[in-house]
Amino acid sequence: MGSNVPLIELRGVCFRYPGGSLIHDELDFVLQTGGRVGVMGQNGAGKTSLFHLIVGLLQPDSGEIRVLGRPRCQERDFWEVRQKIGLLFQDPDDQLFCPTVGEDVAFGPLNLGRSRQQVMQIVQRTLEALDLAHLQDRVTHHLSGGEKRLVSLATVLAMEPDALLLDEPTAGLAEGMVERLIGILNEHVQTCAIISHNRHFLERCTDVMVQLHGGKVVPF
Amino acid sequence: MHISEGVLSAPVLVAGGVLAAGGVGLGLRRMTPDKIPAVALLSSTFFVASLIHVPLGPASVHLVLNGLTGLVLGWMAFPALLVGLALQAVLFQFGGLTTLGVNTCIMAAPAVAVSYLFQPFAGSLNRILVFVSGALCGALALLTSSVLIALCLVFTGRHFLEVAQLTVAAHVPIMVIEGMLSGFTVLFLRKVKPEILGAAADVISPA
Amino acid sequence: MNLDPFSRGTSALHRRDPRVKLVVATAYAVVVAVMQDMAALVPALMLAVLLTGWARLPWRPLLRRLLVVNGFVAVLWMFLPFTHPGTPVYHVGRLTASREGVIYAANLTLRTNTIVLATMALLGTTPVFDLVHALHHLRVPEKLAQVAFFTIRYLDVIYREYLRLRNAMRVRCFKPRTSLHTYISYAHLVGMLLVRSYERSQRVYQAMLCRGFQGSFPVYRHFSLVRSDLVFGTIMLLAIGMLWLL
Asked: What is the ipTM of this complex?
């Protein structure tokens, strides 16, 4: 794959929720390898659905979605996409469902067919990298909001994705946690797109900012 | 798990209705006002869980989880399951109005029985004991329910015997799935929110 | 979750008082459930078909539901004609079907389809919340009506919570298989839903207490029985009575 082929490329994508109004209208969006894009926009502008289209949780009404240089249409195509593109949900409680932190971090690698031994190593490595090793055997449900956010980031990073899509990662985080998150993102994540209302946060961890407006991606 | 409208004989339907009314009455008596939201939300959760299809070889089976319902709700499983079944009857035409009593007994009687048998062990500190009691809860409740379906059919007419046998046989593989899932779910609850497993404790032994 | 796809219609049946529909549907179902005679079952089915037509139910979901119900009936047809003793009428291999068995299975099929159609036409055309409300008026124990109310109220909330968790599992490449990993993951999913619902129920109860809940709900909206409801109810009950006597 040539280095000029975008990692993620959406062309002319139209999408509406069944019975709803048009959310995306001939939308174009590109994320290059190594690119760091901040996505802003009003509530209901379609930021979350943009991410969900990329990983195939939603299907566009028309237009093309190319990830890793190949068009992606069916559930089968997106399975590979999800190995390479990690999505961090807006609400960590939507993402975390295992009893303990360790088990939740192991869930992704287990789905990728890694052996128990490998999974154990991945879990340990990931948690240590994020300075969360002490939480490994804790019950996820009992953690604080900020801890849950970092753990859900760990569950995505454990799959060793090529790029991350982060949906409002600073929502509900205390100031100290935001600093910690910025540190982690700048140290461990090369390619990412981040949805946020927090402009200062985006300025510190992305290179480009775009805005979703009128169903299209426009420069900020 | 349910029997459709128009299959069972009048005596079976009436007996089911009377027994279900008794069970629901007992459940309601033990349901103090503060427990109403909990019973209702757990009832909706079990309803949603019953929409989950779990793969089993080339086929898939949907979860029933009546053993788990009993373990969590005790006698209150009767009103909870009655509401769930009534909803299924009205919304999806699964089961039906006249079979509501019978179907409630089929689901709830085994649920209450396993809660008496296994509730004391589900809160144990021994993980294996917790899993085993949860698994037996799920498996035995499902098996008993299928046996009750078979009995209802046979009491309706001797010529249902073969269908009844087939029903029980078909539920054996599902029983294994239900058992495993219930076991792991109880382990989860034991670890994350043990008070849910205790919720029924004060209900089983009437205050 | 699209709970009641049939309830959003504008037919005359949609506008009837939920209490009347509930009483009529129950009477209809009970009478048909114990009918043994084809001479009564055929007109009973015709009346149910008439009601279904009157309710103008969307035919796709209607057929899908009939198909599900009759799938079970089809299984019974593979057994009942052969296991019911009586005069032989036809053979399949070494098995002999009896005339009585065939009639028994046919009656059962008529009963099942009649009740299912009547329930769809009468209760399907009523929003579920109105049904609970009607139950309350019809003296169903209050606590039971409350459980039903909250169950329906939170069904969609919990269903969406389930969908979000399942999507999150898919995003992490979860593929359901016949494997221990799959079963454990589903068990965690169910466990998590139970924990969240339980905790939500505590908050719901606290919020109710804050608004002065003391064990019973004041009924805010009342149904009003108009003349067409009474006419409809009377005619239907008379018709059901006649079917009973047939």
From this structure: 0.92
In a 13 Å sphere around the CA of A190, the CA atoms on its Cβ side amount to 10
- pLDDT at residue A4 above 90? no
Write out the residue range of the structural domain in which residue B139 sits: 10-204
Question: Which of A93, A141, A143, A148 is the best mutation test for B, with the most CBs of B within 10 A?
Answer: A141
Beta bridge partners of C94: none
Q: Looking at residue B204, what is its pLDDT?
A: 43
CA–CA separation, C111 and C123 (whole Å): 17
H/E stretch holding A149: helix A145-157
Separation between Cα atoms, residue B3 and residue C112, nearest integer Å? 11
Residue by residue, DSSP assigns C26-79 as HHHHHHHHT---HHHHHHHHHHHHHHHHHHT--HHHHHHHHHHHHHHHHHHHHH
**Who contacts C161 (Cβ-Cβ below 8 Å, separation ≥6)?**
A94, C193, C196
B64 falls within a domain = yes
Radius of gyration of the CA atoms of chain C, in A: 23
B79 touches B27 (CB < 8 A): yes
The structural domain count of chain B equals 1
In chain B the first and final C-alpha atoms are separated, in Å, by 32
Nearest to B3, CA basis, from A46, C35, C75, A165: C75
Residue the block writes with tokens 């969360």: A132
Strands A216-219 and B53-56 come out as unpaired
> How close A47 gets to chain C, by Cα (Å)?
17
Find all residues with CB under 8 Å of B14, minimum gap 6, and list them. none
Residue B121 lies in a domain: yes
Nearest Cα to Cα of residue B166 among C108, C101, C76, C92: C76
Q: Per-residue pLDDT tens for C95-119?
A: 889 999 999 999 999 999 999 999 9
Report the residue of C1, C162, C170, C173 to disrupt the A interface, i.e. the one with the largest count of A CBs within 10 Å: C173
In 3D, which of B187, B179, B196, B194 has the Cα closest to residue B45? Answer: B196
Average pLDDT of span A61-88: 92
When the pLDDT of each residue in chain C is averaged and rounded to a whole number, the result is 89
Check residue A109 and give its pLDDT.
94
Residues of C whose CB is below 8 A from B24: 144
Inside any domain, residue B1: no
Q: Could you tell me how many CB contacts below 8 A there are between chain A and chain B? A: 10
Whole-angstrom distance, CA of residue B207 vs CA of residue B180: 33
**Where do the domains of chain A lie, and which CATH numbers do they carry?**
8-95+162-219 (3.40.50.300)
pTM of the model: 0.89
Nearest Cα of chain C lies from the Cα of A79 at a distance, in angstroms, of: 6
Nearest CB partner across the interface for C108, out of B6, B39, B192: B6
**C185–A112 CB contact, under 8 Å:** no
Residues A139, B192: C-beta atoms closer than 8 Å: yes
Looking at residue B198, what is its pLDDT?
A: 73
Q: Is B181's CB within 8 Å of C26's CB?
A: no
Q: Check CB contact under 8 Å for C173 and A112.
A: yes
